[in-house]
């Protein structure tokens, strides 16, 4: 198993103040091994097994390969995964799987450590193509198609996205028209914008595909359904009516053969419709267990939510690796003699460097705890333990909330880590730029982030409106009075006045109110609830307007809707972090994690400080103390930075970054020894400035 203990050669002693020894004895200590186990989450052993695999060179990316070489290497790696039994965990036991949905995603996410291209291509094969057959098909489809998909005998594509319709799946233009005479569906992409695009496995390797199209029978369009289609023959040539193109070189993930597909009069048997949620009889009659077309559509798409789950986890892992590299380097690399005549300072002892990296580390911790809870929820839904419509809707909302935040944060962290490592961070050998390129598209994979957050906002508005569904005049009147009182209390400055009186001009008193767990939760929750209430008030009555006018009202509030959803997702992360704290047994570790959680929570408040001031939630003095206390927390966490990144458990074989391997420490030690020997021997040349100073004294 991969050792999650600290990597001792990556923990040099940093420059410290003279009183550091006495202070260190009073500091809480982090149990790195226990914390590492906690961060691995519910499927810890499965993650460790997957990381052990990711540490093996045959699964890893070779920097500098051509696109063609990289594509063939990743395809061969998929076969290695099959041969090692690593990819069948989520499939049915009767087909050789384990029916373990959460464990499957946990293992799959860890492939990002080896090569994001491997993670995504395996996700296309088994998490999208295979999963579509599993979750949208029925037993006959499972028996007919899944064994060859599982064994990689049939590589496949997941053909949903179209050139003209990305996130708006309901409006795709590909059609599947039923022909009663032959009992076949005829698949067509009627114009260029209807071509299926950006599809992994489509350019070269895909033999079959699950294609999403508008199902039309007896002149009626029953909406988007999934169909199984053969693409290529055994020689790799397109079958009649099927065509396509290679997407070519991309900004990243070039180990995946993304391409386009189009169909002209392609006929498939009636039973190639994946008919779990909608079927067509021989005479063309359509039937479905879900009568509402809208609910049927969202149910079908909801079965494929695992892509968003895995992107949330993989993005969190990539950010954790970047911070491990950057923080390790920052405790070894020395620059400028700020506090000594002879000794240069390590980068992480500079306040600005701490500000760049440690708050981002706090966010990764919040994401890690939130992701594990998310994965537990996913497993409960897909195992059938909690599979009600409400459970599925909750899962889809959580997915749409967390995936945007983690993918955006991964890009932000990778960029900041790259810059924090200077020129060394720009070298491919140190991994960060490659990860940054590969993860760029994660923000638009499985749904554009802004579109996903808009879905979250709509759910929040729906839940808000349900509070008053069927309410009588008295309940609404009481609510209106309450809202008026609330606005008067906050808007008139009464809340701020109360804070000023409580603070008595003391920054310490201001801070004490902010580091309280309940105070942080109240502030974060209040922002979400107030934003939703304000938006709901502005949208109230819009549904009674003509469609164009209603759309204009919604459009004017779209940005605030997305910000409210983002605030909701940030609250989910904070709450998950807090629950993780409650499960931390070691007292020293718990104290340090509490500081990390406070840094995350107060960082959110600082980011949105303008909102809290405008809405009267914080007095100017207390708002000022937010930044002051964040700076104190960062300084307090500085001695624990290495412990916190080492707890992620990544070894040198995982990171594969020379600047995090101890090489920088060796260079620094060599340089320090050289100059120290010069000074000791008296052979060091006298600096011109020293002579000038002596001359002035005379």
TrEMBL record:
Domain Acyl-CoA oxidase C-alpha1: 302-461
Biased composition (Low complexity): 12-23
Cofactor(s) the protein needs: FAD
Every Acyl-CoA oxidase C-terminal domain range: 528-660
Keywords on record: FAD, Flavoprotein, Oxidoreductase
Domain Acyl-CoA dehydrogenase/oxidase N-terminal intervals: 71-152
Protein name in UniProt: Acyl-CoA dehydrogenase family protein
Organism, as annotated: Agromyces larvae
Taxonomic lineage from the root: Bacteria, Bacillati, Actinomycetota, Actinomycetes, Micrococcales
């Amino acid at each position: 198993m991969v050792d999650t203990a600290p990597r001792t050669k990556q923990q040099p002693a940093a420059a410290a103040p003279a009183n550091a020894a006495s202070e260190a004895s009073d500091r809480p200590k982090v149990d790195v091994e226990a914390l590492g186990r906690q961060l691995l989450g519910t499927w810890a052993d499965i993650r460790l097994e997957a990381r052990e695999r990711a540490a093996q060179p045959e699964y890893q990316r070779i920097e500098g390969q051509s696109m063609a070489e990289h594509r063939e290497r990743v395809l061969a790696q998929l076969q290695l995964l099959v041969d090692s039994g690593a990819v069948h965990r989520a499939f049915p036991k009767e087909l050789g799987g384990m029916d373990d949905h959460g464990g499957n995603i946990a293992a799959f996410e860890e492939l990002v450590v080896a090569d994001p291209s491997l993670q995504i291509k395996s996700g296309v094969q088994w998490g999208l193509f295979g999963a579509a057959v599993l979750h949208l098909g029925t037993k006959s489809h499972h028996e007919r198609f899944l064994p060859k998909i599982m064994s990689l005998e049939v590589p496949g594509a997941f053909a949903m996205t179209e050139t003209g319709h990305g996130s708006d799946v309901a409006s795709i233009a590909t059609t599947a028209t039923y022909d009663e005479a032959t009992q076949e569906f005829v698949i067509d992409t009627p114009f260029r914008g209807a071509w299926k695009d950006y599809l992994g496995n489509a350019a070269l390797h895909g033999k079959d595909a699950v294609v999403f199209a508008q199902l039309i029978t007896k002149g009626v369009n029953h909406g988007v359904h999934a169909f199984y289609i053969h693409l290529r023959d055994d020689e790799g040539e397109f079958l009649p009516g099927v065509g396509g193109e290679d997407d070519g070189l991309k900004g990243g993930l070039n180990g995946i053969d993304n391409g386009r597909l189009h169909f002209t009069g392609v006929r498939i048997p009636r039973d190639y419709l994946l008919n779990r949620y909608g079927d067509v009889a021989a005479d063309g009659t359509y039937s479905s267990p879900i009568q509402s077309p809208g609910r049927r559509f969202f149910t079908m798409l909801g079965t494929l939510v695992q892509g968003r789950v895995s992107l949330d986890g993989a993005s969190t892992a990539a950010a954790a690796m970047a911070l491990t590299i950057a923080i390790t380097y920052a405790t070894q690399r020395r620059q400028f003699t700020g506090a000594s005549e002879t000794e240069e300072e390590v980068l992480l002892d500079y306040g600005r460097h701490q500000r760049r990296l440690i708050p981002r580390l706090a966010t990764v911790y919040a994401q890690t705890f939130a992701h594990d809870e998310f994965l537990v929820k996913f497993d409960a839904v897909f195992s059938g333990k909690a599979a009600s419509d409400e459970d599925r809707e909750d899962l889809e909302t959580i997915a749409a909330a967390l995936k945007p935040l983690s993918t955006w944060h991964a890009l932000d962290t990778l960029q900041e880590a790259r810059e924090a490592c200077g020129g060394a961070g720009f070298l491919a050998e140190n991994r960060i730029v490659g990860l940054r390129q590969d993860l760029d598209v994660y923000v638009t994979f499985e749904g554009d982030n802004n579109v996903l957050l808009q879905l979250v906002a709509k759910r929040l508005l729906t839940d808000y409106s349900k509070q008053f569904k069927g309410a009588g005049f008295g309940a609404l009147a009481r609510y209106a009075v309450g809202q008026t009182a609330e606005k008067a209390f906050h808007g008139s400055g009464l809340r701020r006045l109360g804070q000023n009186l409580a603070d008595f001009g003391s920054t310490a008193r201001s801070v004490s109110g902010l580091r309280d767990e309940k105070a942080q939760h109240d502030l974060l929750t209040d922002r979400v609830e107030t934003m939703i209430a304000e938006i709901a008030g502005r949208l109230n009555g819009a549904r009674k307007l003509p469609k164009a006018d209603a759309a204009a009202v919604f459009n004017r509030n779209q940005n605030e809707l997305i910000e409210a959803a983002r605030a909701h997702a940030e609250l989910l992360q904070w709450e998950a972090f807090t629950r993780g704290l409650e499960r931390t047994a070691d007292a020293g570790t718990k104290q340090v994690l509490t500081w990390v959680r406070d840094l995350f929570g107060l960082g959110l408040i600082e980011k949105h400080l303008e909102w809290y001031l405008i809405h009267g939630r914080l007095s100017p003095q207390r708002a000022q103390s937010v930044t002051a206390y964040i700076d104190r927390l960062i300084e307090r966490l500085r001695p624990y930075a290495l412990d916190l990144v080492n707890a992620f458990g990544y070894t040198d074989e995982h990171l594969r970054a020379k600047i995090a391997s101890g090489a920088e420490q060796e260079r620094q030690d060599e340089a320090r020894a050289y100059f120290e020997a010069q000074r000791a021997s008296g052979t060091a040349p006298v600096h011109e400035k020293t002579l000038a100073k002596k001359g002035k004294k005379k």
